[in-house]
Amino acid sequence: MNESEEAARLHWTPTDPHGFVVSDGAPTVRDDYELPAPGQGADGPAPTASPVPALGAPAHSGPKAPSYPPVPQGLPAVTGDLAAAVLPDIVLDGAAYPGLSVRAASVRGDSHRYAGEPRQDALCVTRIGGDEHGGELLMLAVADGVGSAPRSHVGSNEACRLAARYLDRSTSLHETIRTGDAERFQRTADDVVRQIGNLLGDLALQYSERPDAFATTLRILLVPLDPRIRTRGFLAVGDGGTALLRRGYWHLDVVGDADGDKDSAVIDTRTAALPRARSAVTRLLHAHAGDVLVLSTDGLSSPLAGDAGMREFLAEAWNGDEVPAPADFLWQFQYRVKSYDDDRTAVVLWEHGEVQ
User: Fold this and answer.
1) What is the b/e burial string over 232-243, where b = at least 16 CB atoms within 10 angstroms of the residue's CB?
2) Which of 15, 51, 235, 249 has a 20 to 30 A CA-CA distance from 202?
3) Which element (helix H / strand E) includes 135?
């Protein structure tokens, strides 16, 4: 069937593929399309006896789900803050390389949805470094904009973007991680943190804001794409979580940067957040085949630490070599725990081991 025949069959003009007929400059919606009888249409699937599978609402801990609906709600207005208004409620991402699989998600918290406020968390899954001789790394990052900072949703996204920019420029980063040079890695991380802080400060000046208005935490994991290299570089500014699922058991603070005396909902923007921070916590980690490493903001690390039901659910969902499909991962990731209503962001790395 050619274009003219198709247009005649659907009662629209070839110049108007959206079904509008323009007359004297006024669009009119056609409503006289002829629809085939059920089971007789050539342009769509025939009805089936079985319903389309659906995961439904996320699972929850305890006998009763949290009172907020687990779906996107009110949106920020463009007239109030364009950057906030265009941020998606949910982000889903991932990657796969020999020996590695990644799933990542960021979901606006129930309280922000209810209030029509933006998601202040951000994530990044990207590839950095490398030349004709290889040396590429996977950069996995999460950032948690400080709740009291009015432009933290911009700060968190910019921190991820700037980290990718400056770490990509490092000519020695891959070799530093490969050789396990902890001192050199610390210097590189501190240098990158200072550069990010300076540029966020410049951004604040452009908006006529104080630097603290863009306050955000940042956690990064750097993973060589060469499957023979088992060392991973970790750097962080401020709160968050870095948990390890190994052989079905959770280790909730594998980098040792948690502060047990500190309320995880409170971030001191003078010392533990960008743009004022000038140094990072760094670690070099050794990965084992079968490890599942979870890099997250407090929106996941806090309920994971506080709720046994969540730990059991995610251990069953994420343990082992089988990586969930993206839609399944998002559903699992949104497991709900009452009273935890902050933004939730995590990048999850499955270590499959060295590829022969």
Assistant:
1) bbbbbbbbbbbb
2) 235
3) strand 134-144
- Please list the pLDDT of the chain residue by residue as tens digits (356 residues): 666 565 555 554 555 555 545 555 666 666 666 767 666 655 666 666 788 999 999 999 999 999 999 999 999 999 989 999 999 999 999 999 999 999 999 999 999 999 999 999 999 999 999 876 679 999 999 999 999 999 999 999 999 999 999 999 999 999 999 999 999 999 999 999 999 999 999 999 998 999 999 999 999 999 999 999 999 999 999 999 999 999 999 999 999 876 443 433 333 434 489 999 999 999 999 999 999 999 999 999 999 999 999 999 999 999 988 999 999 999 999 999 999 999 999 999 999 976 64
CA 343 vs. chain centroid, Å, equals 11
Q: Are 238 and 277 in contact (CB under 8 A)?
A: yes
What count of other Cβ atoms lies within 10 Å of the Cβ of residue 34? 7
The reported pTM is: 0.86
| Spatial distance between the Cα atoms of 350 and 294, rounded to a whole number of angstroms | 9
Q: Which of 193, 250, 253 is nearest to 217 (CA)?
A: 193
Q: Do the bridges between strand 231-237 and strand 281-286 make them parallel or antiparallel, or are there none, so unpaired?
A: antiparallel
Distance CA 134, CA 136 (A): 6
Give the pairing type, strands 292-296 and 241-246: antiparallel
Other beta carbons less than 10 A from residue 321's beta carbon:
12
The two tokens of residue 203 are 């951004």
Instruction: Please name the residue ranges forming H helices in the chain.
Output: 3-10, 82-85, 110-115, 152-169, 173-179, 182-206, 298-306, 308-318, 326-333
CA dist., res. 116 & res. 75, Å (int): 5
